[in-house]
Design a protein that fits this description.
Oligomer: single chain
Number of strands: 0
Low-confidence stretches: 91-96, 145-154
Structural class: mainly alpha
Strand content: under 5%
Shape: globular
Order of helices and strands: HHHHHHHHHHH
Number of helices: 11
Distance between the termini: 17 Å
Radius of gyration: 18 Å
Length: 264
């Protein structure tokens, strides 16, 4: 990669591996030995719509709370392990109570994950008090992996960013002018709706598996651990790319990412 430092070449290669890896559903399928899609069909009627609504509310409530508990002056490594432990406990409680507990557990686990995402962002040099950095943290929840609906001319990662770009710009402009107290404004709702529509897919997969009677508390903890691990990986890759874009520019990083992602 011409004009790129060797360590940055390695970082971008890692980002490609993280962002282009199998989806959360694939990892859960490996765990339970059966397709998650089959489990989703067993969810009660209307549950997917209820989860979408719950997901959007959880995202709206989690953002400022998660970011405000971080110290921007701290420049050490992100506390990924601590966040995994906390989300495992959350999953164990949810798993022991079954599907009915998900709408209670979801805001808590989403806040934990968002805090971990913001922590990773900070460790990659983001100013987490900046509006665009906060919205970039939310972007991570849309990154469930490549989708058949994504633009074939792009990798899945950049297709998702392109799909969110307009709504993100609109939301950033509104928040800059009015602050987070205006989080219910149409511009913010549109952005959150786009994020929630993708995040709710993983939430539905998580719910379907946790609804399996034999999963229980231990299985719920494991599912939540996979859930956290998945989004921590997405966050690490996303904020590596953003860090390199700040250093080298968007197009050079995107072009090399594309080469690495399509390399045999």
């Amino acid at each position: 990669m011409e004009n790129f430092a060797e360590k940055d070449e390695r970082s971008l290669a890692l980002a490609v591996v993280l962002l282009e890896n199998p989806t959360f559903a694939a990892k859960v399928t490996d765990l339970i030995g059966a397709p998650v899609e089959k489990a989703i069909t067993l969810l009660p009627d209307g549950m997917s719509e209820k989860l979408l609504s719950s997901t959007q509310k959880a995202l709206a409530k989690a953002l400022d709370l998660a970011v405000s508990t971080l110290d921007e002056r701290y420049r050490g490594e992100s506390a990924d392990g601590a966040h995994r432990v906390l989300t495992s406990v959350s999953g164990a409680l949810g798993g022991s109570l079954g599907l009915l507990a998900l709408t209670v557990e979801l805001p808590f686990s989403t806040t934990l994950m968002l805090r971990s995402i913001a922590d990773i962002a900070r460790s990659e040099g983001e100013r987490i008090t900046d509006v665009r950095a906060k919205l970039a943290c939310l972007e991570v929840f849309a990154m469930g992996g490549t989708s058949s609906a994504d633009d074939g001319a792009e990798t899945g990662y950049f297709a998702i960013r392109a799909a969110l770009a307009g709504a993100m710009t609109e939301a950033a402009k509104y928040l800059t002018q009015h602050g987070l107290s205006a989080a219910g404004a149409p511009a913010i709702v549109r952005f959150l709706s786009k994020i929630a529509s993708r995040y709710s897919i993983q939430v539905s997969e998580k719910a379907a598996v946790q609804a399996i009677p034999l999963i229980g508390a231990a299985g719920g903890a494991t599912i939540n651990l996979l859930f956290m691990d998945h989004f921590q990986n997405m966050a690490r890759g996303h904020f590596i790319v953003r860090r390199l874009e700040r250093t080298y520019g968007v197009e050079p990083v995107r072009e090399q990412y594309r080469r690495l992602a399509t390399r045999p």
